[in-house]
Amino acid sequence: MKPAPFTHHAPERVDEVLSLLVEHGDEAKVLAGGQSLVPMLALRLARFEHLVDVNRVAELAGLSRADGELRVGAMTRHRVLAGDPEVDEAVPLLARATRKVGHFQIRTRGTLGGALAHADPAAEQPAVAVALDAVMEVASGSGTREIPADEFFLGTWSTALADHELLTAVRFPVWKEPCGFAVEEVARRSGDFALVGVVCAVALGDGGVDRAGIALFGVGSIPVRAAAAESALLAGAPLDEVAAAAAAELEPPDDLHASGAYRRTVAAELFRRGLTRAMEEAASRREIARA
Amino acid sequence: MPERRIELVVNGERRHVDVEDRTTLGDALRDGCHLTGTHLACEHGVCGACTVLLDGEAVRSCLVFAVQATEAEITTIEGLSPEDGSLSPIQDAFRECHGLQCGFCTPGFVVSLTAFLASSPDPSDEELRDALTGNLCRCTGYQGIVKAARLATDRLNGRRIVETTEVPA
Fold this sequence. Notes:
The complex is a heterodimer. By secondary structure, chain A is α+β, with helices and mostly antiparallel strands.
C-alpha cells in the first residue's frame, strides 16, 4: 500500500506547471489535493514517473464573482466551497453538494479542480457542473481554451483534458431569483461515494418553471443530464410524472454495491424528492421577494 | 530511489528527515521522526487512523507526501497532550467513557475531534456523529466513542465539570 517511486515537482507558477507537463507527457500527472490520486497510486491502480504538485501555485486558488458568474480556482479546497458564505449565496448548489463530498478530513485537502479532473462517475461536483452549465477554463503551453461541462466528462475517470493541459478554473452561472436547489443522494455510509444521487436547480418565472438544470450521478460512467425531464418541467408537467419518466430512461450499472434495477428505483424517488425540495425553495423565495 | 533531507516542523520542533519523494507524511513521522503515535492502517485514506493536523486542520497523513508538508506546522497525537504527561480533555473523555479497546484507531479519533471542535466548538449530537464518520473503529461499536465525544464537548463548553472517573449515563 505504498505508491511506486516517482519524482515530485513543486512549481509555483502555472507556466512552470505547463512546461513540466509538456516535458514529461503521459509520464506526468497533476497532483492537486491528492485525495483520489494518492489512493490510486497506493493501490497501484495508477503509476506515474512524475507528479506535478500544484499545491504551491497560489494563482490557482480562490473565488471571484463577475458578470453573473462565480469563478472558482481549480485549487480551491472543498472546505472553502462548503463554508464560504459567498458560494452559498452565489451558487448554493455547489456549496450544498460539496458538503457531501467525503469526510471533513478529506474536504480539508481535496479540491474542486481535482474532483472534476478525476471524474468519478459517483461524485457530486461533476453533476453540479453539468446541471448548471459550468465552463471549464483550461491552460496549456499553446494557450487557453474553455470546455463546457457537458463536453468535459468522457467516461469513468476520463475527461476532455489532454496530457499537457491543466484545468485552471471553473465558472458557474449565478442563477436569477427566485430559484431553488437540492442535492439528494443515497450512500451506504456517510462520506462514501453515492450509489445514486441527483442535483436539481429550478428558477421560476411568471408562468411557472422557466429554467431547470438537473443531473444524476452514479447512474452511468458520466453525470447524466435529465434533458427530457427539464423540458417536461418547463412545459408544466406534474413533478411525479417528470421524475418517473426521467428514471425510466436511465440504464444504471450493476455492481457489488447495488443492482441497476435498485439504482433506477432509488433514482426515481431521489429525483422526486430533489425536484420537490428545489421547487418549494424557489416558491418560498418568490414569496419572500414579493413580501 | 534517492532520498533527500527535508525539514519538518512537528509539534513545534524542527526535525530533519531523509525521505524519498514517495514517502508519505505518515511514514516520515513514524520512521523518520520516531513519533509512532500516528497509526497507519489502510494507507489509502479510508480508515482515518493516521490523521494529523497540518496548520491546525485534520488531514490523512497517508494521503500527503512528506515533501509536501515542509512549509506547514504539523501536530501529531504526541503534540496534543500537556507536557506534564496528563491527558487532553478529549483524551480524558475517551478514557472515562471506554472510547477505546485496542487503541489502534484512537489517535485518529482524538486528532480529528480536536480539529473538529476547534472549528465547530458546540456541535449538536448529529453534527458530532457526522464528524466521527471519517474514522473507523473495529472494536468498540462506536457507542463509547460517541459518548466520549459528547462528554468532551460538554466539558469544553463548561456544561459538565471534571470531577470523577464515573462513566456518564
